[in-house]
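Sat 14:20. Reprocessing the chain from the morning session after the first attempt stalled halfway. Input below, unchanged.
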Amino acid sequence: MTTAQFSFPVRDVERKVLDRVAELAEGFRAVAAGYDERAEIAVAHLTALHDADVDRAVLPEHVGGLGLSYSAFGHVVCVLAKADPSTATIWTMHAGAGVALAEFTEETLGSFFADEFLAGKRFANALSEPASGNRFLNPQQDAVPVAGGWSLTGAKRFVSGCEIAEYLLVNARVDDVPAFFGVVPDETVSTIPIWDTLGLRATRSQLLSFDNTLLRAEYRGRAPGFGDFAVIPAGLPAISLGIADAALDALVEHAQSRVILGKPLSHQQWVQYEVADVQTKLAAAHALYERALREADNGIPSFFPNLSRAKYLANKVAVDVAQLGVRVGGASGYLKKSPIQRHLRDAEAGQLMAYSTEVIAGEIGRSVLGVADGE
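Finished this time. Tokens:
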């Protein structure tokens, strides 16, 4: 990939990282199906990304990183998700937890978490809980005061990469206020092996149980702020867009190679019409996402709601493209060897990631209709 192919300004320090990610993604794509079939975390992929300075790149400059722009970050996640969406998801959650802890604790712990992140330690995002549903920034589980901090008993679900994590980003209510902590998993943190999911199998996003786990006072961070690098909200739309891009490529390849009555399937009018519909929607989803990233890079507050809109559209478009792939693929699309069935399974997962499409639809609808929250 050359600089001329980027649709956003690219600094020299970013160009090398983006080009290296494109190279790595080709290798990831070749083995993604195997990791998915085994439901195995591609640790080698995560190590390769770290060694290519991708972790350093996503860390903001003020905490010791290279400070990727939002536009460059979104490009990275899209490229990774097109090649291997499970790796893209784990890396996004790892980066989200590591960057958040580096920023949240900068004034109290200094560079501790940033240094650990740069050293290659693994982080995982443990915020979602059964009691709070999609509202992962508003925990319902209370931590009680104990010597050295607070004690948490409860559960966090869908913690991508938790089995290899050396640090967790955990939240809980302290004095009725959401509080955020770095947690080193110990004997009080156990994995509940629930992972036999339909899609994104290689994320191994397990349920974690906390049994009087100490939330150390010195590892407590401040609440998220507007100026923080919003890794996860910015990354989630890209995961679905990458899946949709891959699904469309698989659909096109099948339609061009499958011959029906002497002509490729791509010559059938119904296929052309349906492909036109999903490709146009996918282009619109990319455009909305890129707009939100540009707004984020320029400090325009509307980037947060527009990232939510981009996630909503990307989630739905990914499913539309993947479902059409199955229709065009016919019975062969159901075969285990076909990438079409994997893209369909992965596409469905995006809709369930917080905030889910239903929650976002409610927010968008209330905004458009002028209905205040809580009414």
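Strands lie at 123-126, 143-146, 149-159, 167-174, 177-183, 189-192, 206-216, 220-221, 259-260, 263-264.
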